[in-house]
Amino acid sequence: MRFARYPLAALFVLAALFPLAWMAVAGFKAKTEVVATPFQFFPEVWHWENYTRMLGDEAFLRSLGVTFAGAVLFAALSLAVNSLGAYAFARLEFAFKRTLWVIVITTMFIPAIAIMLTSFIVVTQLGMLDTLAVLVIPGAASGLQVFFLRQYYLAVPRALEEAAQLDGAGPWRIFSRIFIPLSKGALVVVGATSFLAFWNAYIWPVLTITDPDLFQVQQYLATFRSDRTSELGLLMAGSTLAALPVIVLFLIFQRQIIAGVRISGLK
Fold first, then answer.
1. What does pLDDT average to in each consecutive run of 10 residues of the chain (267 residues)?
2. Which whole-number Å values give the CA distances from 242 to 17, 54, 200, 219, in the listed order?
3. d(CA 261, CA 39)
4. Using CA atoms in the order 119, 120, 126, 132, what is the torsion angle rounded to 10 degrees?
5. Among 10, 107, 120, 175, which has the highest number of CB atoms less than 10 A from its own CB?
6. Does domain 56-266 match CATH 3.40.50.300?
7. What is the pTM of this model?
8. Are 27 and 237 a contacting pair, CB within 8 Å?
9. What residues does each domain of the chain span?
């Protein structure tokens, strides 16, 4: 039975990596060769200029830079807001705590698309359109991430907290010196998830950003489907380059991400 796992694992890995490999190879194909029939995985002629053209495209590089900066800010803000909220619900006592916790949990079951229009009206009235803030601030607070981190904080032994209180430590010191170091795996999962969500966002940037200087990378690549429909090789090359930061992020933090997800499943 153990030996049967390896072919199944290899098949799963192949199925998961095939679309990414095809996209990377399709970036070397000619304009219409990407959708040519019959299907051909490798190009007849390798067009290296597709990648060099994308790397020389100032608008594409600017969208990568703006998206990366926004993703870092979004991840940092998400970590700050949701970790503090999780600590408050896990350890602090305050008025209407149970009621507020029910409200936070309820937001987990509301689809983002259901509040898209009302969110757009709010940011419009606040004058946030065509700013990086409209991409970073609205979605920073997440009921799911608060719930996820709260489960970690509940598992922290109260003896550690009581010992710190005997030494005169207040809530902030206990949070920063005890809870944060003990939940690094969970924080990495939350940060990586937030980064990925921002990087792959498309609908919200399209609604709120019309300034080309603030175009997100997915928003910029969408112009290929409208303005440059025949440049499918360039689109595949750009999509491959846009996927690289996320792949590198996972490779750097893969141990923490896997460990955090595994431990969360045990609690």
1. 70 84 88 79 86 91 94 96 95 92 92 90 94 93 93 88 86 90 88 92 93 92 70 87 88 74 53
2. 16, 10, 10, 11
3. 38
4. 100
5. 175
6. no
7. 0.88
8. yes
9. 56-266
